[in-house]
Design brief:
43% of the residues lie in helices and 18% in strands. By secondary structure, the protein is of the alpha+beta class. It folds into two domains: 215 residues, no CATH class; 86 residues, no CATH class.
Length: 314
């Protein structure tokens, strides 16, 4: 796990958003909707609180047990030690049931962030047991951060973000706003409000910015919640797709051309021919699985992966 501290600039914004969305889809595919929803509620602050007067090792073990319970690893034991190291933490992915986690020595005096570091490393164990990974190392770390947050322990990682005019700290590979985005996606799916848990004002600000981005996912055409500008652009793209389909059909009939209209649209949605007429494809705003529905006005669709009911105007 990477940590950024003084002298290392914290990246902001949403540079990894495509990978984050792919990670959410991968979670639903590997776990199922029912299993994902079983990770409610999130771990509560009282269970991972770490006071300065607490014994370092006993306190770390207590927090680890709370996170093991949250992340559904009842038969796993975390053995925690501290040493000087470049990264914030690391875990040895063995067969289990014991897993050895090493934390950076600086956590001896920064105990409030031990839970955040442990959450990321314990999620590595979860994903290892699920045999769920991405081939690229950095993408795999983004998957780990995303899964930690979406399954109820990642608000700790966002709360570890602190930044002022002279210093900064951030744990994990996601930007603060991307942590806020995933946390907001979880809040919507689980009907949960994490805002009272933040002790860092910068973390709360990042959450609100991430939430704005998450809300946009549910306000894009062809969803009925899309705004006027989006609906206007969608109608224009639909007319273009329909004209292209008619043109290609005429070419095929007149010259024996054996092609198809292909996909026409934007990165948000695409039009393509189907056996019963034109269809539009778009991402489910909950799990980001691609959905295809016929272009025929008002349509109610259900995502086959997360089973979210979607009101569409195609």
């Amino acid at each position: 796990m990477v940590a950024k501290t003084n002298g290392s600039e914290v990246v902001h914004g949403f540079p990894h958003l495509d990978t984050v969305r792919t990670a959410i889809t991968a979670l639903y595919r590997r776990l199922s909707r029912e299993t994902v929803l079983s990770y409610a509620p999130s771990v509560v602050p009282a269970d991972v609180a770490f006071a300065d007067q607490d014994d370092l090792h006993l306190g770390a073990q207590r927090v680890a047990r709370a996170l093991v319970h949250q992340l559904r690893l009842p038969d796993a034991r975390m053995i925690i030690s501290f040493r000087e190291m470049h990264h914030a933490a690391s875990v040895e992915l063995a067969a289990g049931p014991e897993y050895f986690i090493e934390l950076n020595d600086r956590f001896r005096t920064h105990r409030r962030d031990i839970g955040a570091a442990l959450a990321h490393e314990i999620m590595h164990v979860v994903l290892h047991r699920l045999d769920l990974s991405f081939p690229d190392t950095r993408d795999n770390e983004i998957l780990t951060d995303t899964a930690t947050t979406y399954l109820g322990a990642g608000w700790l990682l966002l709360d570890a973000f602190r930044e002022d005019s002279v210093s900064s700290q951030k744990l994990g590979y996601l930007t603060p706003e991307e942590f806020g985005y995933v946390l907001a996606k979880r809040a919507m799916a689980f009907d949960e409000d994490p805002s009272p848990w933040f002790t860092s004002p910068q973390a709360y600000t990042a959450y609100t910015r991430g939430r704005v981005q998450a809300l946009r996912d549910a306000q894009r055409p062809p969803l009925t919640a899309a705004g006027w500008a989006g609906r206007h652009r969608y109608a224009k793209d639909r007319r273009h797709a329909q004209a292209t389909a008619v043109e290609n059909t005429g070419r095929a009939e007149g010259a024996g051309w054996a092609g198809s209209a292909g996909s026409v649209g934007s990165a948000v949605y695409g039009f393509e021919p189907g056996p019963d007429g034109m269809r539009v494809s778009f991402d489910c705003p909950t799990c980001h699985q691609r959905i295809r529905v016929p272009v025929r006005g008002r349509v109610r669709a259900r995502c086959g992966l997360c089973r979210t009911i979607l009101e569409c105007d195609t």
